[in-house]
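Table 4 source record.
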Amino acid sequence: LGWVCMSASRKSVTLTLLDDGASEGHRFGINALASTCASAWGSSRELFTGGRDGSVRCWREPEGGGVPRLRFTVDEHTDWVNDLALLTDGDLTSAVVSASSDRTIKLWRPEGETGTPSKCYTLRQHTDFVKVLGYAADAGTLASAGCDCCVVVWDVARLAPRVVIGGSEGARAHGDSIYALAVKLDGGLIATGAVDATLRLWDPRAQAAAVGSLVGHTDVVRGIAISADGGCLVSCSSDRSVKLWSIGQRRVQAELRPHSDSVFCIDVDESCSRVLYGGRDGLVLDDSFAAHASPPPPPPPRGVCQVGAPALRLHRPAWAPELLWVATSDSSLSCWRAAAGAGDG
């Protein structure tokens, strides 16, 4: 038996005994998913998972397809891994970034066939749980946010903060913990969502100036996605809704509300017209905002899958966007054909 320190903050330590013969998967819920189809370390078709057991795991799809196999595990955090981001250099993934409830962000670069990190760098600025990451590949902009109510834009080359939004007690970015964040592709806009049910827009190039707020949710904002052109935004919330916003007009353009409980996660296309979403009830749905712009009644959303625990994260892999990975709070990870609704495992 081995052990993992799950939390060393807030004057408490939890030890979890692990069976050496246990499966290769996470021991607790899976909070984060990311994927690459081409990396600087010479691998392709890799799926990264971050879990409540404090680990980041890399899974490689075999040649010719099939069930991904565990390639390596990184145990650098001492608490939950809440989010992942993959940095890029040109067309290649160059580094993995993880955010944790241990109040740190880790950046590391796998090397060689084993994928062992050559060195893991620790980024420190947050004073509470780091809940979410956002990365704009076109601009190389990495941002983070969490329970300290501030947003940090990082200088990845120097491994240091470039801009801190809400770093002082009297000027927090939100009035409560930030659970959702997205960055426009060119790095010129950051959107955040929080427990206070608001969404706020920031320009990190103008001394982190606030450029607007989006008000309409009535409970915790859980997820955000910005369209490729930066014209619209999709958000999901514990108020059971998924909303499409016009960023320019600062208003809701359409709303989806088929769930009977909190919506925890979304996956959208580049135009934010098609959206897949899941939540506490374990039901994952496929819907289109365009369909709801037609005269009523709109067609019902298509069911993709029903998982046995709350769906925490959805992800379509870079090499097969017709597939959908679903991560849950009970540590299960399943793959479904989003295009046809048939389960793969």
